[in-house]
Amino acid sequence: MRVISGSARGRRLKSLPGSATRPITDRVKTALFDILGPRIVGGRVLDLFAGTGSVGIEALSRGAAEAVFVEKDPRAIRALRENLRETGLADRARVVRADVFTFLRSARAEAFDFIYVAPPQYRGWWRRTLEQLDARPEWIAPEGQVVVQIHPREFEALALHHLDLVDRRDYGSTHLLFYRLHYNLA
């Protein structure tokens, strides 16, 4: 796992052995940031179930103004902090040790331009996370985007009130779902 582009390009990122985290492949990460394009520059990023921080670090490397990483596994947090130090991006990062569901429910909502959701597979946590974001749309900036990384077999259509599924991309065993706020939020 490495940083693909930007100020930390080519830097290797520490990962964790086992299935505690769901790392994104370089191929999928490249495709994701090709889709997001320059919109990431100057934006605020929320990396939920951050693991070792590959997606948020990539966003920072490509010019995001700030990234907040939410992770509860202490081993992943240690690796994440080390990755931030090694890439020189720690000054624009905030690491929150918390359960994602507790964080979204109890923290003061902040508007983010890009929210990345990549929970452990086959637990339904991606759905639960989207439902919590849908219930508190103030987490999402008006032109913001929520991207969910799941296995294609996990997908199900959700009845959401404030979020629309606007795109779906398949990369082998990785499925990326792109959600945006309705324009007529009331």
Explain what you see:
This protein is an alpha/beta fold and 186 residues long. It has a single domain (40-181), classed as Vaccinia Virus protein VP39 (Rossmann fold). The protein has 5 helices and 7 strands, in the order H-E-H-E-H-E-H-E-H-E-E-E. The protein has a 7-stranded mixed β-sheet, sandwiched between helices. Strand 1 (44-48), helix 2 (54-61) and strand 2 (66-71) form a beta-alpha-beta unit. Helix 4 packs parallel to helix 5. The model has no long low-confidence stretch (mean pLDDT 92).
In a few lines, what is going on in this structure?
The chain has 186 residues and is of the alpha/beta class. The chain contains 5 helices and 7 strands.
- DSSP strand tally: 7
Overall average residue pLDDT: 92
Residue windows where pLDDT falls under 50 for at least 5 positions: none
Name the helix and strand elements from N-terminus to C-terminus, one letter apiece: HEHEHEHEHEEE
The CATH architecture assignment turns out to be 3-Layer(aba) Sandwich
